[in-house]
Amino acid sequence: MGRAANLFWLLVLFAPSLAGALSSDREQPIHIRAASVEINEKTGVSVYTGDVNVTQGSMELTAEELIVHYRNGEVSRMESKGQPATFRQQPDGALHEVRGEALRIEYDADAEKAYLVGQGHLWRGNDEFLGERIVFDTLENTVHATSGDDDRVHAVIQPRKDTENDSP
Question: Is this model's pTM higher than 0.85 or not?
Fold first, then answer.
């Protein structure tokens, strides 16, 4: 169970780390479904393949393949691949969830950054960011999107409503 617990502290990438997930998510059981799993303790790599679905509380992750890298018994990096790979989670104190999709989603646990590579699309509430590569810094809560050679990034930022003026 130690490996599964370590795996999910990072799977919470697309969760608490990524957006300050619901604090209750960490207390929920982790469910991983895949057609197969191969764990190689010698190399420190676990590979889940075939319609991978991960849930923990409000966090959901889907991919065709999920690769988890361990260093010193701890998850150091995760990479999910799909057509597209997706994640979603409800952040603590937020009205809207955070969602993302890309052909590849990577998470660097040391830097606490998520990388959406290949047709990246990130939603934070009603705001959205599209680009060939999107970096979401979970510590600084920043988004950096870059375009491909023949394209441009696209950001949609919704106006913020003044809640004081909306009151009757």
Answer: no
